[in-house]
Design brief:
By secondary structure, the chain is mainly α. The chain is 96% helix and 0% strand. Pfam families: Entericidin.
Amino acid sequence: MKIASVGALGALATLLAACNTVDGVGKDVEAGGEVIQDASNEVKEDIND
């Protein structure tokens, strides 16, 4: 019983850590997308001027 409880706690800790990692990756991808979008808007403005 004790081993199962420790295993369950370990699995829970792993899942929580994975959520934080996925959240961090999502924020990084979003920031990269914003940089690309800003660059695209600058090119668009240069073409229209």
